[in-house]
Every structure is written in C-alpha cells, then in structure tokens.
Amino acid sequence: MEKAVIYLHFPCFDGVISAVLAAEILEKRFGWTATEYRPVNYDRMGEWRSEKLPHHSAVVDFLYHPDPQMWADHHATTFVVPGDRVALDRPDGRLLVYDANSPSCALLLWKRFPDYFASSERFGEMAYWANKIDSADYSSVVEAVRGESPASQISYSLAIRHDPEYCDFLVRNLRARDLAHVAGLPDVLEPAREARRQIEAGLDQVAGHITLNAGDITVCDVTQPPGTIVNRYSPYLFYPHARYSVSLVRSPDSVKITAMRNPWLDFESVPLGTIFKRFGGGGHTRVASVIVPIDEAAKAPNSLGEIVDAIHEAESQARERQGIEA
Question: N or C: which end of the chain has fewer CB within 10 A?
C-alpha cells in the first residue's frame, strides 16, 4: 500500500472524525495507508493555498487545495482563490467532495460513501456526534455547555490538548476503537475534566461582561485568564432568547471573535461565515469565527462592533426582501 498524509482541521471534533473516515476511504478506494495526520487551522489561511502538498494526501474539513488526491469540506468560505470552485466540475481523477449545505464534513463523507463504513456501526455513531457538535444541534444549552456523552468529553479535551501529538493520538485511537473507549482513556479523561472545570470558571467571567443589545444580540468582550475557558454557547445560559451571540475573547496568546445564531430558536440565520470572511475569518451560515493577530489586538473591539453592525444590516436586508416577496 502507498503511504498517505491526511491534513485535518484541528482542534475540531468534526475534523478529527473526518480524518478517521477519510483514512478508511483512502484505504478502500485507493489502497493507501494513512501514516501521518497533520493538523491545520485558519491561522494558516494566508499561506495555505501556496503550500505544496504531496499527491498521496487528503485534506478534510478545511480550505480547498488543488494538490491532494482527496479533498472534502462543507464550509461556504472554503474557496480562497477565485475560480477554484470550477475544479469540482473538472476533478481530473481526484476525489473532491463538497456540499456547503452539509452540517458537518464527517456526515458528508459518511453519507457519500456508505459502503466503506457498512462493516462498523461505530463510524455511524462518530459521524452522528461530529454532526451534532459541529452544527450545534444540541437539545439544550445545558447539553452544549455541560454535556456528558463520550463525544462531548473528547471535544472538551481539545480545549486543553491541541498539539499535533494529541491530534495523531485521537485519530489513530478512533480508527481502532469506539467513542466510549477512547473517551475513557487517561490521555482524554484528564484534559476533559480540566476543560469542564475551566468552563465553569469561564461562566463567572462572562457573567460580568455580557450585555444584550436592542437587536437581541449578546455582546461580550471578555479576558480569559489562564485556567478558564469561555464556552461559545455560554451566552445562551444568560440570555436564552437572544437571536445571536458575538463574543471577543482575549487570552495571553490569542484574540478571537466568534458569532453564533441561537440554535434553540427557529428562524433563518444571516450568513455569518460570509460576514466573517470580510474580517479574515470564516465558518458556516450559523457559526463563524476569526483569529485576530496579536499585534492587531487593539483593533479587535472595533471589529467586534462592525461585526454586530453587519449582522444587524444583514437581518434588515433579509426583512426587506421578505417584505418585497410578500
């Protein structure tokens, strides 16, 4: 068998499970064995498209790249270079899998290639949970913030362990074992427990810095001290009827702005991923984020306000269109 490399969005539960499924596809479709798993994230957006990747490789749950033999993604903002999307019409023998309407990359792969996973129910369970976590399809905000499932524990652990070694550890173990087994391993249990402790500490931080504006958008500019995690769903513990949340979270080594449509209210979301693309980020229609360079941190509050204004404007335009159509 040929040796292959898989590039995956990390730290991201959907990215991890997508890599597990991609390894199966490479083996059964191409006769390749995945021997290396390389994590990638959006801080590499600027140079990603110009990097040279090996032919015997796959990229999953991340930006389009023309080099690998296999590429799969579901983000609306995945095509960095104008014109790259035409590659879907001319795959030239490569396996290109894309659907911006799929809630997750893992579910997209599992549905597209069911025969490759028919021999093991655990792959279906993994795809189910990757889809649930990535699309914020939780039954309640309590489940989102304090979930007890094995998949939730693995996802929590990614907040503490996001080094390449842990990425490799998770993908290799999940290829061989089910979620419950891997979630019970000491290497996962310890960071998961620490993440849960830090999430509770983060709720205390958010409580003193969150407001609800006139457009039913929660706005939070909060510093995340060492030993705390600001969970992206936490705004809805404080304002369960808010339509959107936009949060600026500062830590010693990063500054990040995230936005989310309330997943527990029934309404059509504005395209958050498209809005965030203007600011150098990206994501889905309902969830998006941008990493602000440390040397530009002073501009982050302005960006936060501009993003909130952009959401207001997009909602106003949507209402106008609905009025015209009515």
Answer: C
Helices marked H in the chain — which ranges? Answer: 13-25, 45-48, 105-112, 121-134, 141-146, 150-157, 164-176, 179-183, 186-207, 235-238, 272-277, 300-325
Put simply, whether the predicted model's pTM sits higher than 0.85 gets the answer: no
173: burial class by Cβ within 10 Å (0-12, 13-18, 19+)?
middle
- Identify the sign of the CA torsion 179, 180, 181, 185: positive
Q: Beta-carbon neighbour count of residue 306 at 10 Å?
A: 15
Strand order in the sheet with 244-251: 210-212, 217-223, 244-251, 254-261, 287-292, 282-283
- How confident is the model at residue 325, as a pLDDT? 59
Q: Mention every residue, 6+ apart, whose C-beta is less than 8 A from residue 241.
A: 216, 262, 265
Domain 208-325 of CATH type 3.10.310: yes
Contact present, 235 and 287 (Cβ < 8 Å): no
Q: Per-residue pLDDT for 326 more than 50?
A: no
Contact 228, 202 (CB under 8 A): yes
The Cα 36–Cα 3 span in angstroms is 8
Q: Which residues pair with 40 in a beta bridge?
A: 9
Measured distance CA(20)–CA(170) in Å, rounded: 9
- Topology annotation, domain 2-186: inorganic pyrophosphatase (n-terminal core) (3.90.1640)
Would the CA dihedral through 131, 43, 294, 157 be positive or negative? positive
- Which residues make Cβ contacts (< 8 Å) with residue 325, sequence separation at least 6? none
Examine domains 2-186 and 208-325 and report if their fold is the same.
no
Listed by start position, the domains of the chain span 2-186, 208-325
Over residues 99-107, the mean pLDDT reads: 96
Tell me what pLDDT residue 324 has. 63
For residues 261 and 280, give the distance between their C-alpha atoms in angstroms, rounded to a whole number: 19
